[in-house]
Amino acid sequence: MTEKPTLDSKLAHKAAHLLSPIDLASGSATRIQLLKDCGVDFRSYPQDTDEDRGLATTPGQIVCHIAKGKMDAFASSADFDPARLALALDTMVSFHGRMLGKPHDEADARRMITAFCGQWQDIVTGYVLHIPGKGMRTGAAHSRLLFRSLTPAEVDSYIEGGEWKGVAGGYRLQLNGWRLVERIEGSWSNIVGIPLEELVGILEGNQD
User: Fold this and answer.
1) Strand, coil or helix: what is 5?
2) 143 beta partners
3) Among 79, 90, 131, 178, which is 20 to 30 Å from 117 by CA?
4) Strand, coil or helix: 62
5) d(CA 31, CA 83)
């Protein structure tokens, strides 16, 4: 990629209108920044849940199962307001048949980024959206991303910047991670962690 991806202004405007106000069952810095960039009125409630995959086997099933666990935890807390929109999500990278979440440490992040070089990966985000008076909507959004063929020095430079911490796959497109990428297919916001196009579509279809 020759330049940093930017948020589509029309999509951001729709998100600000349809998603506001909303409770985000997540403390993810990338998701919080994305909602801020859209102008969405939101409150963030991090969920400390065990990201158990249960009996789920496919990438979409796995992330939806984990997102449901986060929503269940939030919905049973004192912070949950059934009169407000609420959103829980989980994002993972599907790479050569393996599901990858957040790197455990710097060495793990370096292994991930090195393995990604010159390769395609699938980014899958599972979501559970609570719509007041209409129940829960659950789904999974898929995007594809091709990494550049990076030199060891480029990998080291990115890892040393610390952006790998706390994010699936160990890179952040909103910061300098876009420099590692050759091409994106599908939703950019989904890769960041919130599939805005799908959520906007759901809410447009649920307007009275």
Assistant:
1) coil
2) 123
3) 90
4) helix
5) 22
8 A C-beta contact, residue 40 and residue 22? yes
Spatial contact of 70 and 127, defined as CB atoms under 8 Å apart: no
pLDDT in tens, 87-125: 999 999 999 989 998 999 999 999 999 999 999 999 999
The residues annotated as belonging to the active site are 90
Q: Is 90 exceeded by the pLDDT of residue 84?
A: yes
Cβ(51)–Cβ(44) below 8 Å: no
Distances (CA, A) of 163 to 5, 7, 53, 127: 17, 20, 26, 24
CB 34 within 8 A of CB 97: no
Pairing between β-strand 42-44 and β-strand 22-24 as defined by DSSP bridges = parallel
- What's the chain's Rg over C-alpha atoms? 17
- The answer on pLDDT for 37 being more than 80 is yes
Q: Residue 6: its pLDDT value, please?
A: 86
Whether 197 contacts 189, CB under 8 Å: yes
Instruction: Using the structure block, give the residue that is written with the tokens 């086997």.
Output: 57
Distance in angstroms (rounded) separating the CA atoms of residues 10 and 158: 32
Q: Across residues 155-174, what is the average pLDDT?
A: 94
Distance between CA atoms of residues 113 and 108, nearest Å = 9
CB 160 within 8 A of CB 120: no
Q: Tell me how far apart the alpha carbons of residues 172 and 192 are, in angstroms, rounded to a whole number.
A: 7
The identity of residue 65, as a single letter, is H
Structural domains present in the chain:
9-205 (3.90.950.10)
pTM flag (> 0.70): yes
